[in-house]
């Protein structure tokens, strides 16, 4: 009996211990965010949010613009590769190589992708740091994420859905486009938003491709002019790159306040995107299933 | 009836071409990195053994040493120290949180802890680096009485451990959750307490999954550049103790690539380090595959 008692005491101690760790982690994680946002707000003065050289407006614009462009490039590629892997690739050596390639791409340190981008998109094209090189480098980072999301989604679809489509005389491709892709649309949207989130925070891949500064005039919207915000061949720094630059190279006296502000903005962006991804995924799912189906789903859960 | 080309072959061709393109991109990265990284040894004729065993990285040509030296051992050791230290800090917490979420309190775990952990995967690494530089480093400097600031191995390892913690936790959660509930019930049926069940049944059964998470965390720690660079001090010496300033493979690339003129020993040795990082991350993938295969084999036996 003594042994049982000891085991029970050990069990209780372990439970308490695990509760403490869990609470500690939650407190740590929330205090990190709250503190960062607090410091951002504390150092806020209107100048920092402006489009002047001291402000972060340019970087915010660059961040959104570059992420948008890289999603436009990487989403079709990633989704197509995912479809190929899940539906067309037969188990063979070649498929194995593609899978290995995707895994390797996904796990490459972003600084390595960054210097690859520097070599291929900057040095070999005889240009200097430019936004387009950064966008292409970001796309290399996003493609494997989207491939994985698509492939996983397609693999989890119920076989009966496919069979139903085939029975109606659809070809494999028609089944993919009209049945399977709509079925995994919520996951795809979530995946794209999360990939965008990765793009926002990326800096190591951009410091040698898109550059550390931007020289932009927001009164000039002619895309072919080098100072236009829309021009994709100008240098362009994102919020994340700005933090790196301010910490390492900047000389203005209020650089740390600007960096605090940029960090807070990034955190808020990440939260908006994470929560946005969850909500959008759920809304699309609900729309597609239809409210009656959700009701019956709930009912079957109760039963 | 529409032609089969439109309804099937066109789409199939497009996705197959894209699939092949992914291989092409990976191959391209491999070829370029190997070609650039090998130049240090093939064109500039530095010795490979110097790269791996010399701690002196001084590729600037001087009068008494016309070639300089490209020893990368300092950076290799720095990378290994900082990422294993981070792993040491992060793993116990990550596994404990995974156990909490799956076995102790799935209700609170799923509602609060897991979403929190998942959101933290997405926080940009420079933000962690910035927080480390502006909050952690002054704190460490105060505790250990470091007059020149708290940048060093310990700060970098702590920042990294916060970064890799969510990675390990999410993978560990999945693998503990996948342990068949029959195992757990059998364990309880034999009179085990919850702790005994977790310790003797859940964790051993989820071992491979947790290991995969640890390797993924290690890979992330190894590859992180800017956050580490902001807090490690960037001194090119082998760390004497846990507070020493040092450099890693990634930080030297992030800091020196921009100022290295193309074709010099400096630039090429940095490319060699990039190649080394590429090879290491490939080895991590292989490790994860081997661990995964072991799990499959085990499953087949049963």
Can you walk me through this structure?
The complex is a heterodimer of chains A (303) and B (302). Chain A is mainly alpha-helical. Chain A folds into 2 domains: 1-42; 46-302, MetI-like fold. Chain A is 74% helix and 0% strand. Chain A is built from 10 helices and no strands. Chain A has helices at residues 2-42, 57-88, 93-107, 110-123, 131-155, 159-167, 172-201, 239-248, 255-289, 291-302. In chain A, helix 2 packs antiparallel against helix 7 (172-201), helix 3 packs across helix 5 and helix 7 runs antiparallel to helix 9 (255-289). The mean pLDDT of chain A is 86. Chain B has 302 residues and is mostly helical. Chain B has a single domain, classed as Orthogonal Bundle (MetI-like fold), CATH 1.10.3720. Chain B contains 12 helices and 2 strands. Chain B has a two-stranded antiparallel ribbon with strand order 1-2. Chain B is globular. The termini of chain B are far apart. The model of chain B has no long low-confidence stretch (mean pLDDT 88). At the A-B interface, helix 1, helix 2, helix 3, helix 4 and helix 5 of A face helix 1, helix 3, helix 4, helix 5 and helix 8 of B.
Short description:
With 303 residues, chain A is mostly helical. Chain A contains ten helices and no strands.
- The CATH architecture of chain B can be named as Orthogonal Bundle
Strand proportion of chain B: under 5%
Largest sheet of chain A: none
CATH class of the largest domain in chain A: Mainly Alpha
